[in-house]
Design a protein that fits this description.
It is built from eleven helices and 13 strands. By secondary structure, the chain is of the alpha/beta class. The protein has a single domain, classed as Spore Coat Polysaccharide Biosynthesis Protein SpsA, Chain A (Alpha-Beta Complex), CATH 3.90.550.10. Bound molecules: uridine 5'-triphosphate. Uridine 5'-triphosphate binds next to helix 5.
């Protein structure tokens, strides 16, 4: 049974400077919730309620977000703000949150390795990256867990992109299976040069892994960027026996860079009952008037 998720949040967030100098990118709001809250909600919605943050210096506000905040609760209670009080209290009840530190940002694989003691060699666990938001309420993670429990193999999430964009990502070499959307992954390549793409399926930030991956990670040397990469460890696994890839069939929002983050905010806000209708009406009006475009704050 996969009950634990490792959430690596110790990266430097260099694509999002200067804000990430003082604010972890996972705490930047998408509408009114930090993106990491959507991730923890996705875990819980999919039956994973034990969450391990891999954090670093300056990231402790992330754990605070999922903890009690008694002064705020008292103030809200005194003012009779019951709905807000429930929001704040529910967050502390959402999941069991633990944390472990990654002293140095030595790569995603190294961050995942920090979960070894919590999970142990015989456990299995999910890994979710905060940059990739999936459609709230979707059961994709549960389906990855099912595939892992059925096969015992590492499971990665794959997304179809246009062929001319594959070189920007890590891509998978795959063989079909008799299950719809499920592939055997025989190899993975980071940023393949145009013309050498193994497929148009790229890897996105969801993994379900057996505890045996820790042993593989321990013997994985630093790769691209001098970092210990989870892709390199998975490549070692895939060479022994294909791992499993599940193709995303729900929308994914990439909040790891500025443009993706702005788009995600608009898309999430557009479907919200409280702000969506007014936002869309305003956008139509604003974009409909050429003179107004570019007239926002600088
Ligand atoms: P990224 O490659 O997106 O790096 O990491 P980053 O630091 O977050 O952002 P940029 O590229 O500098 O803008 C993917 C995920 O792995 C975590 C990050 O926090 C992010 O969730 N990570 C990465 C770690 O926890 N530790 C690391 O050493 C590297």
């Amino acid at each position: 049974m996969v009950r634990t998720a490792v959430l690596p949040v110790a990266g430097l967030g260099t694509r999002f400077l200067p804000v990430t100098k003082s604010v972890p990118k996972e705490l930047l709001p998408v509408v009114d919730r930090p993106s990491i809250q959507y991730i923890v909600e996705e875990c819980v919605d999919n039956g994973v309620d034990d969450v391990l943050f891999v954090t670093a210096t300056g990231k402790s506000a992330m754990e605070d977000h999922f903890d009690r905040r008694l002064d705020l609760e008292t103030a809200l209670a005194d003012k009779g703000k019951d709905a807000e009080l429930a929001l704040v209290r529910d967050l502390a009840e959402l999941a069991t949150v633990h944390s472990v530190r990654q002293g140095e940002a030595l790569g995603l694989g190294h961050a995942i390795l920090q979960g070894a003691q919590h999970i142990g060699p015989d456990g299995s666990f999910a890994v979710l990256l905060g940059d990739d938001l999936l459609e709230p309420g979707c059961d994709f993670l549960a389906r990855m867990i099912e595939a892992h429990e059925r096969t015992g193999r590492p499971v990665i999430a794959l997304m179809e992109v246009p062929q001319d964009q594959v070189h920007l990502y890590g891509a998978a070499e795959v063989e079909p299976t008799d299950r719809d959307g499920e592939f055997r992954v025989t190899s993975m390549v980071e940023k393949p040069p145009p013309g050498e793409e193994p497929s148009n399926l790229i890897m996105v930030g969801r993994y379900v892994l057996p505890g045996s991956i820790f042993e593989v990670l321990r013997s994985t040397p630093p790769g691209r960027g001098g970092e210990i990469q989870i892709t390199d460890a998975l490549q070692t696994c895939a060479q022994e026996e294909p791992i499993i890839g599940l193709k995303l069939d729900v929308p994914r929002y990439d909040t790891g860079d500025k443009l993706g983050y702005l788009k995600a905010n608009l898309q999430f806000a557009a479907v919200r009952e409280d702000v969506g209708p007014e936002l869309l009406a305003w956008l139509r009006e604003w974009l409909g008037e050429d003179a107004a475009v570019g007239a926002g704050p600088r």
